[in-house]
Amino acid sequence: MWLLIIIGVGCLSGFILFRKNILAADHEHFQGPEKLSIIIPARNEEYNLRFLLDSLQLQTVTPYEIIVVDDFSEDRTKEIAESYGVKVIANSSLPEGWTGKSWAVWNGYLQASGDIFAFLDADIRLKPNALASLLKARELSKGVISVVPFHHTEKLFEKLALIMNMLGILTFTSVFEKNNAKKRIIRFVYSSFKAGLRKS
Known about the structure:
- The protein is of the alpha/beta class.
- Helix content is 42%, strand content 14%.
- The protein has 8 helices and 7 strands; from the N terminus they run H-E-H-E-H-E-H-E-E-H-H-H-H-E-E.
- The strands form 2 sheets. A 5-stranded parallel beta sheet has the order 3-2-1-4-6, sandwiched between helices.
- Strand 1, helix 2 and strand 2 form a beta-alpha-beta unit.
- The C terminus is likely disordered.
């Protein structure tokens, strides 16, 4: 009985928390002075990547550059990225103390030449005004923003990913992790905009 109460309170708290922090859609044209670099770490994303790159071509804000970091893909991820004319770099071997995705993001960042950075998962799908909304939200916040996309799921096992997502959010917002130096490094590497309005 207590377990059901805890789960119920947790779900209600999450609903209230995220309902108050939904990113408002910006339908006005917005273009800041900064050059926006999009960095996409991708491993075996031949199916998803094309949807993201298509949606980036439809944005009301044109990115200064789009960088796809091919993280040792064994499918056609690299070829698909190249067919869109974006910059594709091959990720280097993983050094000790790094996780794969953070290392790919870091290497993409090192290759970027923009003033502001958006880190996007390859399975994100953006509405045409997504980048404009993110840039405006960043300008209002005067700092780094991180956005959890809407998760579109079709199968039961995909719905179970909600558990891992919630654990990730709790890890990054935990008061016990406030002074964790490693966490600050990860936030620097993988912050700015982990963003989109739909995740496949």
